[in-house]
Amino acid sequence: EAGVTQFPSHSVIEKGQTVTLRCDPISGHDNLYWYRRVMGKEIKFLLHFVKESKQDESGMPNNRFLAERTGGTYSTLKVQPAELEDSGVYFCASSQGSGMLAGLQETQYFGPGTRLLVL
Amino acid sequence: AQSVTQLGSHVSVSEGALVLLRCNYSSSVPPYLFWYVQYPNQGLQLLLKYTSAATLVKGINGFEAEFKKSETSFHLTKPSAHMSDAAEYFCAVSLGTALIFGKGTTLSVSS
What we know:
The complex is a heterodimer.
Chain A: E1 5-7, E2 10-13, E3 19-24, E4 31-37, E5 43-50, E6 53-56, E7 65-69, E8 75-79, E9 88-95, H1 100-105, E10 109-110, E11 114-118
Parallel strand pairs in A: 2-11
Antiparallel strand pairs in A: 1-3, 3-8, 4-5, 4-9, 5-6, 7-8, 9-10, 9-11
Chain B: E1 3-7, E2 10-14, E3 19-26, E4 33-38, E5 44-50, E6 56-58, E7 64-68, E8 73-78, E9 87-95, E10 98-101, E11 105-110
Parallel strand pairs in B: 2-11
Antiparallel strand pairs in B: 1-3, 3-8, 4-5, 4-9, 6-7, 7-8, 9-10, 9-11
């Protein structure tokens, strides 16, 4: 079974440009999460999809970030326009179940991350 | 509010020595706790998780962790380190469905 995949693995862009990150969750997983790790800091939650709906986007930094999940399958995270402080590693994760209690203790399976550098 | 503190950003051990990575949590409700590991150029992999079924949790690769409510701790241990254990380790607590991570501890293993 394929794991969570992310594309690209690395991206180097200039300030003001647009970048789109893609995540393909494990097949059949309804829950999809985005996290970010800025250098030297902890991994932080950005948002959570259940199927195609945004369940929680409380961690999104600002309106330069836009996440979508087309048809409840893959997800994209667009940063427009990118700023220097957006540099970091963006992780995607997915989990299978449904319901709040299941979600609390469910294992989230992480992708390898996209390393974004904004110059 | 839930939070996680990992004591020590870097831990160095010799091959064969005990590994102890410390994690303390703060939670207003019974927590669900996780340890993840990230090997170089790879994603995060679940080592083990505590879901209240048992206080001593055994994970993959010989790791285990003990949930101690009185100490609000969930330290990760392994009796004998291998070179292949060199990686970054993350403790996390579940908040709703989001995970709250500690800052990570890099484990170095020397021969």
